[in-house]
Amino acid sequence: MAAGIARQVADALVTDLNAGSFTESFTATRSYAGWQLKLKNLSTTRVDVVPVSLADMSLDADDKQNSEAVVDIVMRKRLGQSDVESDGAVKNTVLDPLSDTVEEIAAFLADPANRRPSTYDEATLETVEILHLYVLDHLPAQFTGVIRTRYQHYGDF
């Protein structure tokens, strides 16, 4: 059986995301990120690609493994006082490019040309969903956007 399928999908997504072009610049990394972690760096956007689970493992008649790998993409950026209006709301000029980038990442992954990760073609994107365009509870201190992907894996047992 292939080991670490969700991890391999996550590694491949890191490669693909780092080759893409988005409104906010970032370097994606694979991690087991806790969304509640407070970021110390105020100037960089952090994108974590997180293997979440492997589900529905089964074998077909040819002893090929069929399973679903769930991988989240979590985009975070620590916000500062200059990003907040006098009434405590985060400025639209700060949130717009961040939330746009979350949408761009989802669209990039859903593009038919990107449905199979470039370095792991045993997996095919089944669904991409923006779970949180932004996490309200993290504002105004931090922007957090969350995308959930599900990849169908079909390979040797």
How would you summarize the topology of this molecule?
Elements: H1 5-19, E1 27-30, E2 46-59, E3 64-78, H2 92-110, E4 123-132, E5 142-156
Parallel strand pairs: 1-2
Antiparallel strand pairs: 2-3, 3-5, 4-5
Summarize the structure.
The protein has two helices and five strands. By secondary structure, the protein is α+β, with helices and mostly antiparallel strands. A hairpin with a 4-residue loop joins strand 2 (46-59) and strand 3 (64-78).
Describe this entry's structure for a reader.
The chain is of the alpha+beta class. The chain has a single domain (5-156), classed as STM4215-like, CATH 3.30.2000.10. Helix content is 22%, strand content 37%. The protein has two helices and five strands, in the order αβββαββ. The chain has helices at 5-19, 92-110; strands spanning 27-30, 46-59, 64-78, 123-132, 142-156. A hairpin with a 4-residue loop joins strand 2 and strand 3. The protein is elongated. The N and C termini lie close together (4 Å). The model has no long low-confidence stretch (mean pLDDT 88).
Count of runs of 4 or more consecutive helical residues: 2
User: What CATH architecture label applies?
Assistant: 2-Layer Sandwich
Distance separating the two termini:
4 Å
**Rg, Cα atoms, Å:** 17 Å
Number of strands: 5
List its salient traits.
2 helices; five-stranded mixed beta sheet; single chain; 157 residues; 22% helix
